[in-house]
Structure formats: structure tokens, C-alpha cells
Specification:
Structural class: alpha+beta
CATH superfamily of the largest domain: Glutaredoxin
Shape: elongated
Helix content: 25-40%
Largest sheet: 4 strands, mixed
Strand order of the largest sheet: 2-1-3-4
CATH topology of the largest domain: Glutaredoxin
Distance between the termini: 24 Å
Number of helices: 4
């Protein structure tokens, strides 16, 4: 039996992204990992992800630790088109991690949000890097 197809747009420097990846693996799934700062999504891919998440570029924009304010993107008058164009130049503006499964596409902040779209149950206990228990030994 093959493993379900799961893709994570991942930043290995981000604790939330690492915890999300851990939860995916705790379900027995080895996902396709796209380090989006190294290999950013194309405009079409990002537009599709945003549509599938039923959100906006503004809602997906990360401002902490990014040039969002310097670029004037936090101004409410800036359009989603402006934000999307900036994300193409500065992929750090894309919030993470984004997970794609057959059950949906989701920005997984907090990391346990991934549990809503994983096609397989957790196989055992899981603790976040900070020690917080997300899944008990029973897998729930």
C-alpha cells in the first residue's frame, strides 16, 4: 500500500514548520518537502494554493521578520495583487507551513492544525519542540 500524497511548503528554520513536519511523519507519512525559500512556488502555484485555502494573499502574508512593512505591504490600501507580486520577489513574505493533502490545503499555524487534513491518524505520542503534548500515547 502506498503512502498518501502530502506536500509541505517548509522552512526548516521555523519551529512551527518543524513541528508540522513531525506531526505528518507521526502519521506514518513521508511528505514531499518543498523548502519554499530555496524553491519558491510559481505565481500560478501560489495563486492556486491561496484559492484552495479560500483565503487572500494578505491573509497569507507574513510580516514578522520580513520586509512587508518596508515594502509598504501592511498598508490596507495595498491590493492582494501587490502582495502577490511581492511574494514572488520575496518568498519570505509567504507564511508557513502550508500543507497540501487530498483532504485540503491549509496554513498550519498552529502546527496541530495539520491534524484536520491528514489522511492518516497519528501513530503515537507527539510533543512539540517546546515539550507541549499534542498527541498522547494513544494517538489522540
Amino acid at each position: 500500500m502506498s503512502s498518501p500524497i502530502v506536500t509541505i511548503y517548509h522552512n526548516p528554520a521555523c519551529g512551527t514548520s518543524r513541528n508540522t513536519l513531525g506531526l505528518i511523519r507521526n502519521a506514518g507519512i513521508e511528505p514531499t518537502i518543498i523548502e519554499y525559500l530555496v524553491t519558491p512556488p510559481t505565481r500560478a502555484e501560489l495563486t492556486s494554493l491561496i484559492a484552495r485555502m479560500e483565503t487572500t494573499a494578505r491573509a497569507l502574508m507574513r510580516d514578522k521578520g520580513t520586509p512587508a512593512a518596508e515594502l509598504g505591504l501592511t498598508d490596507p490600501a495595498r491590493s492582494d495583487e501587490d502582495i502577490l507580486a511581492a511574494m514572488m520577489i520575496h518568498p519570505i513574505l509567504i507564511n508557513r507551513p502550508i500543507v497540501v493533502t487530498a483532504l485540503g490545503v491549509k496554513l498550519c499555524r498552529p502546527s496541530e492544525a495539520v491534524l484536520d487534513i491528514l489522511p492518516a491518524p497519528q501513530r503515537g505520542d507527539f510533543r512539540k519542540e517546546d515539550g507541549e503534548i499534542v498527541v498522547a500515547r494513544t494517538g489522540k
